[in-house]
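Structure tokens please, single chain.
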Amino acid sequence: MIVGCSTYVVRKLVDFHCHHGECPASLLARSLRTLVARVRQQNASAQSIAETMEKHSQNHRVYYPGQPGFPGHDLAKRQMQGFGGMLSIEIECGGNAATSW
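Here you go.
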């Protein structure tokens, strides 16, 4: 993001088609203000889903750095403040059962 008000900066932004106006800039500023809260909620949701799915009988494996059994858990715990919002789950069932699950 480049912000400037001098005539030179504005002219260069227009030349490179990098000007977006006031509305997108205000939307970006608003989204940045709530970024920390959204990431914290994503972390909490992923952790909750991982814990719930790990207890489910049809699950073979839950891949999430926040789970103690995850191969990189200790490293992630040292390096990260949260474990992220993405996880992966292997489900033990046939193709038809997997799509209806």
